[in-house]
UniProtKB/TrEMBL annotation:
<feature type="domain" description="ABC transmembrane type-1">
    <location>
        <begin position="624"/>
        <end position="890"/>
    </location>
</feature>
<dbReference type="InterPro" id="IPR017871">
    <property type="entry name" value="ABC_transporter-like_CS"/>
</dbReference>
<feature type="transmembrane region" description="Helical">
    <location>
        <begin position="70"/>
        <end position="92"/>
    </location>
</feature>
<dbReference type="Pfam" id="PF00664">
    <property type="entry name" value="ABC_membrane"/>
</dbReference>
<feature type="transmembrane region" description="Helical">
    <location>
        <begin position="243"/>
        <end position="271"/>
    </location>
</feature>
<keyword id="KW-0813">Transport</keyword>
<dbReference type="GO" id="GO:0016887">
    <property type="term" value="F:ATP hydrolysis activity"/>
</dbReference>
<feature type="transmembrane region" description="Helical">
    <location>
        <begin position="163"/>
        <end position="183"/>
    </location>
</feature>
<keyword id="KW-1133">Transmembrane helix</keyword>
<dbReference type="GO" id="GO:0005524">
    <property type="term" value="F:ATP binding"/>
</dbReference>
<feature type="transmembrane region" description="Helical">
    <location>
        <begin position="624"/>
        <end position="647"/>
    </location>
</feature>
<feature type="domain" description="ABC transporter">
    <location>
        <begin position="947"/>
        <end position="1179"/>
    </location>
</feature>
<dbReference type="GO" id="GO:0016020">
    <property type="term" value="C:membrane"/>
</dbReference>
<dbReference type="Pfam" id="PF00005">
    <property type="entry name" value="ABC_tran"/>
</dbReference>
<dbReference type="InterPro" id="IPR003593">
    <property type="entry name" value="AAA+_ATPase"/>
</dbReference>
<dbReference type="InterPro" id="IPR039421">
    <property type="entry name" value="Type_1_exporter"/>
</dbReference>
<comment type="similarity">
    <text>Belongs to the ABC transporter superfamily. ABCB family. Multidrug resistance exporter (TC 3.A.1.201) subfamily.</text>
</comment>
Length: 1180
């Protein structure tokens, strides 16, 4: 905490920020200084009115100056509190902006290895731990602290004996609060750890959401999630119990302490003969300040949690960078590469070498290739060249300059990297290509034309301005690779690295792109990593990797003659790189709606706020908890009138002789004790019920929302409001925002509101004219506050929408940090995030300016309202409708403290309302297709695997007028192997999407054994080109095919069949090795083999292989295909692949064009009679 308190809040403060702090302190100090003067004026006012020696006319003359002082005090406090609160809000908002900018900049500078031990999801949530409400509350905290300090000082100056008595309540409050913090601190620490687990789980699941859905593993994931939510709620219940006890005891002790202090004052009064009214005023100065302290006490944890978050953020900001950026070199470097005795192992597996004593020299302008089995170290060697990771031993240099001495920005600016699984962000095509690079449109078009991407870009709804990525138009695997190549070329790199860069292209596109790349290779070094040897035959030098070492090197002809490892790879690889891959890969989001439709959907979802009726309907039987809590808490208002009467009786008792007066005082203390026991019970028990209600309903919404997300289809995830980052933010954070509205703040508001009503009724019985006038004033102010509240809620909705956009940018950036580094896009992402963040800051500032008016009234009224009542009472006194005594009585009776509570509570309520709306919309979002129909017991045993498409017409939402499938019919008999081939856009993957039940056809039906497919996902297994792995052990990732029902023997059997068992045994903990987020430390081939094993343990009736072996080398592919061929016996198998060797043995090959089957038959039949199929072969 020391770091955060001493240097944290002011670390990035400028002169402007210091000026804001000083202005705020001065303004609030002036406001606070008015309090003792107002208290003195209040006492003098009452003394003058109660003087029995003067007439009413004379009393009016005497108190006339006090009336003028009253209005002056009101004006000073209103202006001072407004300026003070806005100054602190201005300071906080600027500091949060600075923290956000420096934190994200620091995270984006972290080496990729940093995220091996720090999960990206957790890093993305750290900024959200700084409560934005701190900007509103910090001013309150300073005000209350200054008020308490000034009140104590003035009290000691006037009468130190009574000041000490008044501070009895201070000691009680502090001791109680320390006990409360001691009790809740370990509970909250455990609760925060569970919350972090929940965040990581949600991020992990959402990143592989289509694997979860198509595997029908929703219930498995829900069980894990619900268990964590239940644990989180259980600890929350304990913390709420402590909070309720704290509130109840303070309510009891504060009321009791008042009478104890009054009694001590009475003893001093009788012993010394001092004016009891003065003694009362001195003690009340301290106690009234403590009442305000008690009012903001529920918000202390917000401040403490924000300070802890700042401390955590500072720790990350201050962590040393893994490599120095002090040296800088110009772009005059050519690109001559040298590896000298390089060793490398991943930090999580330090004992398992990935590269061993690798040495090679690559002259500038040469074309080299890395080949070898999957996991042999090819891609790792290329990765080290980019500086994303550093070798354990040895040295890598460019033009003789070691990489560790090169500025990483300069290094990566001269390297163009095209990965096998390219990542794109929620941005336009143009922005995804540039990623902050300042280049002309002509350069972009030229690169796209070279990469053979221009044609399909021109067909997109908004061409280069079309939004793609997580929240935009879905692209096929081939289209993504076209764009990835274009993204590398626009940088005009000296070194171009192609890591399986054309594996997702159809044969015709690959030939054209390869030719274009060869033409573009002039003046640059080309490193190609490929399994298709046809891609690397023309390389100047081929480096053959095996078990992390280079075992052969030379040109293609020389290596073939050598008859070694390379020659074996050539022999193992059969002819057949045939057709283009699935244009709509299953592991990614589906086609997105256009921007106009998105705006409409998003706006409608945040405009219609959830009503109280909807909340109560959702609460069901738990509504009684809310109702009972409100009633019991509200009963504190019933104690108001007796409490006021006891105070008046106590004051009157001081006119009696000592023995009689003190005797009456002791009896009054006992009555007050009983009254405060009842009040404390109502606050404690009623508060506990309200807290538990918020906790339970928040957890209920959290579970319902998460369950509903997991049971959605592709249409749900097509909406920009439903990106991974936004959904994770809603599910993880909004339950806490909702719960906060039912915390101590609501308890205080309800209690004080009932007290306000009770005191108003009491005042009305004393004198209805004055009471009604005061009530009308307060009602007008409350209506004004209500209007402000409605406006502020609208601003909060706008803020929520922009916050969702910021969360999406932050989540995408951190979770794809390797892509950010590869393209030097750190500044671009930082600017993109800060642009949105600054827009949110503008909304918050505008909101604070208006809400600050209501807040200043909330501070002023509790202090000045008694004086206002007295000033108004003077006018009624003039008219002769009220006695002087009743003026004082009504002034004492009306308690406007609730206005302060409401103003402090309202920002919490507003955020809670938005959070409730978000959660309610997610939890009640309709599911467009039945995903869990009634099925007969043991139905899977009777599934044969017969698939039928009948008169299917289908189009994606963003292009409703373009039918991907037109009156499509297909029948796949059970137990047959069918291959789907064709050029990009022909409908292959659309067919798979419909089988996976991610979309429903516009017309026609898709059936399995004559039944709709939704309930039969357990009978289907899908292996995609880019498989999603989870932050689980290797064994659990494989068992994910059939979680909870898979033995270790079955897991090993599947791993052996997928040819991954030997590799798993080399891992530090074998099958118990944790893979980490998305399994990124494994090679593409290793991930694919684990995914294949995952499908095999499922023992499905229908096996779908969507480029399932595209990331495997020829040797592994042959072994895995043999296993898959054996596994396909007795089940229906559907294959989408490029390599002809994958499909030539299929029972039937279907050639698709324009959403129709144009040819069908076996390989031999199509060779003999087919035209379209032969064209595909001729292009390989």
């Amino acid at each position: 905490m020391a770091i955060a308190i001493t240097s944290g809040p002011l670390r990035y403060a400028t002169k402007t920020d210091y000026a804001a702090i000083i202005t705020g302190i001065i303004a609030l100090s002036i406001t606070v200084t008015v309090n003792p003067f107002a208290s003195q004026t209040n006492g003098d006012f009452k003394t003058a009115l109660q003087d029995n020696m003067t007439t009413n006319e004379r009393k009016v003359e005497i108190v006339h100056p006090y009336v003028g002082l009253t209005w002056a005090y009101c004006a000073i406090m209103l202006i001072g509190s407004y300026v003070g609160l806005m100054s602190f809000a201005f300071f906080c908002d600027r500091q949060i902006t600075q923290y956000s900018q420096h934190y994200l900049a620091a995270v984006l500078r972290k080496n990729v290895a940093y995220f091996d031990s720090n999960l990206p999801a957790a890093m993305a949530y750290k900024l959200d731990a700084i409560d934005p409400g701190i900007a509103e509350k910090l001013g309150y905290f300073f005000y209350v602290a200054l008020l308490l300090l000034v009140s104590v000082i003035v009290a000691f100056m006037r009468n130190w004996t009574m000041a000490i008595c008044g501070n009895l309540l201070t000691g009680v409050f502090l001791i109680t609060y320390l006990v409360y913090r001691f009790y809740t601190r370990p509970i909250n620490a455990k609760r925060n750890k569970i919350a972090e687990k929940l965040q990581n789980l949600v991020s992990d699941v959402f990143s592989g959401i289509f694997t979860v859905i198509t595997s029908a593993n929703q219930e498995y994931e829900l069980k894990k999630y619900d268990q964590l939510v239940d644990q989180h709620t259980a600890y929350g219940r304990k913390a709420k119990m402590g909070l309720a006890a704290f509130m109840g005891f303070n309510s009891f002790s504060s009321g009791t302490a008042i009478f104890v202090v009054y009694y001590i004052g009475a003893v001093i009064y009788y012993a010394t003969g001092k004016d009891y009214a003065q003694l009362w005023t001195v003690s009340w100065l301290v106690m009234s300040a403590l009442v305000f302290t008690w009012s903001v006490a529920p918000y202390f944890p917000v401040l403490l949690n924000s300070l802890r978050a700042i401390e955590d953020i500072l720790r990350i900001i201050d962590e040393p960078l893994p490599r120095s950026k002090s040296r800088s070199f110009s772009s005059k470097l050519d690109g001559q590469i040298s590896f000298q005795n390089v060793d490398f192992a991943y930090p999580s597996r330090p004992t398992i070498p990935v590269l061993t004593d690798v040495s090679m020299d690559i002259p500038f302008g040469s074309k080299v290739a890395f080949v070898g089995e999957s996991g042999s170290g090819k891609s790792t060697a290329a990765l080290l060249l980019t500086g994303l990771r550093s070798p354990v031993n040895g040295e890598i240099s460019i033009d003789g300059i070691p990489l560790k001495s090169l500025n990483s920005t300069v290094l990566r600016s001269m390297i163009g990297f095209v990965p096998q699984e390219p990542t794109f962000f929620t941005a336009s095509v143009s922005d995804n290509l540039k990623l902050g690079l300042k280049i002309s449109d002509e350069v972009i078009r030229s690169a796209c034309e070279t990469a053979y991407a221009l044609d399909f870009i021109e067909k997109l709804p908004s061409k280069f301005d079309t939004i793609i990525g997580a929240g935009g138009i879905r692209l096929s695997g081939g289209q993504r690779q076209h764009l990835a190549i274009a993204r590398a070329l626009v940088r005009n790199p000296k070194i171009l690295i192609l890591d399986e860069a054309t594996s997702a292209l159809d044969a015709e596109s690959e030939a054209i792109v390869s030719k274009a790349l060869m033409a573009a290779s002039k003046g640059r070094t080309i490193i190609t990593i490929a399994h298709r040897l046809a891609t690397v035959r023309s390389a100047d030098v081929i480096f053959v990797f095996e078990n992390g070492a280079i075992v052969e090197r030379g040109c293609h002809e020389a290596l073939v003659k050598l008859d070694g490892v390379y020659a074996e790879i050539v022999k193992a690889q059969k002819a057949g790189d045939a057709v283009e891959s699935c244009e709509m890969d299953l592991t990614k989001r589906a086609l997105k709606e256009d921007s106009e439709e998105f705006e409409c959907v998003t706006e409608s979802e945040i405009t219609h706020m959830t009503s109280l009726k909807q909340l109560l309907e959702l609460s069901g039987r738990q509504s009684w908890i809310l109702l009972l809590g409100l009633i019991i808490t509200g009963l504190t208002g019933a104690t108001t009138s007796p409490f006021i009467s006891l105070i008046q009786s106590f004051y009157s008792a001081m006119d009696d002789p000592e023995s009689e007066g003190l005797s009456k005082a002791r009896i009054l203390i006992l009555k007050a004790l009983a009254l405060n026991v009842a009040s404390g019970f109502c606050v404690g028990f009623g508060g506990y019920l309200l807290c538990i209600y918020g906790l339970k309903i928040g957890a209920k919404l959290q579970k319902f929302g998460y369950s509903n997300i997991l049971h959605q289809d592709g249409y749900f995830f097509d909406k920009t409001a439903h990106t991974h980052g936004n959904l994770a933010k809603i599910i993880s954070e909004d339950p806490n925002h909702f719960d906060a509205a039912f915390d101590a703040g609501l308890v205080l508001v309800v209690g004080d509101l009932m007290t306000f009503i009770g005191s108003g009724i009491t005042a009305g019985f004393k004198n209805w004219q004055l009471a009604l006038t005061c009530w009308m004033i307060l009602i007008v102010l409350m209506v004004g506050a209500g209007a402000v509240a409605i406006w502020v809620t609208g601003q909060d909705r706008k803020h929520a929408k922009l916050s969702a956009t910021a969360a999406k940018i932050l989540s995408e950036g951190i979770q794809n940090i390797d892509t950010i580094h590869l393209y030097n896009a750190e500044h671009y992402f930082l600017q993109s995030y800060m642009k949105v963040h600054k827009e949110t800051s503008k909304i918050i500032w505008k909101r604070n300016l208006v809400n600050g008016i209501a807040s200043s009234f909330g501070i002023t009224l509790p202090m000045c309202m008694p004086l206002v009542v007295l000033a108004l009472g003077v006018q009624f006194l003039k008219a002769g409708v009220i006695s002087p005594t009743l003026v004082s009585t009504v002034a004492d009776a009306i308690s406007p403290r609730v206005t302060f509570q409401i103003m402090a509570y309202f920002p919490v309520y507003a955020r809670s309302r938005v959070a409730l709306t978000n959660l309610y919309n997610i939890a009640t979002h309709s599911i467009s297709m039945t995903v869990k129909p009634e099925l007969p017991e043991g139905y899977q045993k009777h599934v044969s695997g017969e698939i039928a498409f009948k008169n299917i017409t289908f189009s994606y939402p963003n292009r409703p007028n373009f039918n991907v499938l037109n009156d499509f019919n297909l029948h796949i008999p059970p137990g047959t192997t069918v291959a789907l081939v064709g050029t990009s856009g022909c409908g292959k993957s659309t067919i798979i999407q419909l089988i996976a039940r991610m979309y429903r056809p516009i017309s026609g039906t898709v059936t399995l054994d004559g039944h709709t497919l939704a309930g039969y996902r357990q009978s289907i297994a899908i292996v995609g080109q880019e498989p999603a792995l989870f932050n689980l052990t290797v064994a659990d990732n494989i068992a994910y095919g059939k979680p909870g029902h898979t033995s270790m023997e079955s897991i090993r059997k599947a791993a052996i069949a997928a040819n991954i068992d030997d590799f798993i045994k080399t891992l530090p903990q074998g099958y118990d090795t944790l893979l980490g987020a998305r399994g990124t430390q494994l090679s593409g081939g290793q991930r694919q083999r684990i995914a294949i094993a995952r499908a095999l343990v499922r023992n499905p009736k229908v096996l779908i292989l969507d480029e399932a072996t595209s990331a495997l080398d020829a040797a592994n592919e042959t072994k895995v295909q043999e296993a898959l061929k054996a596994a396909s016996k007795g089940r229906t198998c559907i294959i989408v692949a490029h390599r002809l060797s994958t499909v030539r043995d299929a029972d039937c090959i279907l050639v698709l064009e324009g959403g129709q089957i144009v040819e069908s038959g076996t390989h031999d039949e199509l060779i003999a009679n087919g035209e379209a199929y032969k064209r595909l072969i001729s292009n390989q």
